[in-house]
Design brief:
The protein is an all-beta fold. Helices cover about 0% and strands about 45% of the residues.
């Protein structure tokens, strides 16, 4: 496995409750860590139209929790996020090569 060349940090503010926000990840993303900055639940998906009005499939980052993905194979990926709490900030760290 090649070593990571780039680490990117994103802070995505979900200004309005139950509204879909997106973050395009760095090219050649290979690892991903996501967490809400405050103790709230956040819905996350890799397909648009799933998180604003919860529609499966989506993933719930539970209050105080985080998600980590390793060995991603996508050349480019967009993460879609929503929360029932307005003003939520979601922190994302992406490792790329």
């Amino acid at each position: 496995m090649a070593s990571l060349r780039t680490i990117s940090v994103y802070n995505v503010t979900l200004t309005n409750a139950n509204t879909e926000y997106s973050q395009e990840l760095s090219p050649n993303a290979r690892s991903l860590a996501v967490q809400p900055r405050t103790a709230v639940d956040v819905r996350m998906a890799f397909v648009t139209g799933k998180v604003a009005t919860p529609t499966a499939p989506f993933f719930t980052l539970k209050s105080g929790g985080a998600a980590t993905l390793q060995e991603l194979q996508a050349d480019s990926t967009t993460v879609y996020l929503a929360s029932t709490t307005a003003g939520t900030v979601v922190e994302i760290i992406v490792g790329s090569w």
